[in-house]
Amino acid sequence: xxxxxxxxxAIVGGTGDLGSGLARRWVKAGYRVxxxxxxxxxxxxAAAALEEQAHDADWxxxxxxxxANVNAAARGDVVVVTVPxxxxxxxxxxxxxxVKGKTVVDVTVPLVPPKVARVQMPDEGSAGQIAQSVLxxxxxxxxxxxNVAAAHLQTDDPIACDVLVCGNKKDxxxxxxxxxxxxxxxGVHAGLINNAAAAEALTSVLINLNRQxxxxxxxxxxxxx
Length: 225
Description:
Blueprint: E1 9-12, H1 17-28, E2 32-37, H2 40-57, E3 63-68, H3 69-75, E4 78-81, H4 85-95, E5 103-106, H5 127-135, E6 140-143, H6 150-153, E7 162-167, H7 170-181, E8 186-189, H8 196-213
């Protein structure tokens, strides 16, 4: 991809394990990343830590900045929301005015502690559908990354699992799939946002498998070249 055409990626809730792992991968791939948090101080600390890691590993470039969530969302071309289910609606409402016309990647899984290994889907059908409803049709919501273990993102190895990508706009899904490809993951078109329920439910199944087999498992889709 032409460097001038690379989107700036904002990660709302980017100081958690999954958000920081995605930030690390995209920064290493040469993308400008804005790490968002409810606390701008925490976001700046996370960005500084990533800059130090990039310096120690001698990455060719490192463009990362820590901001409050709403400011990161305003400045990002693609906005990735990586917050717990309990914070999803509040977070989306706080950034809604800043993401109109953009692609918003919702990574939320409707896990309800302490029984996170049991499938518990919301009345709306899925977290992805909640995101689309809250943000409105002017926003291209894409649901993805629910079945990727954060531990894999913290390494430099290719990630041996596929990602189900759901959303109502195929172009937006493809944009997210392209961003996955540059960080060593294969995304697959999995249909409209309603189908996000399948990927979200699988997360509890994978948690069970991880506990049973002491690993960080994922999924593979066969029959696709």
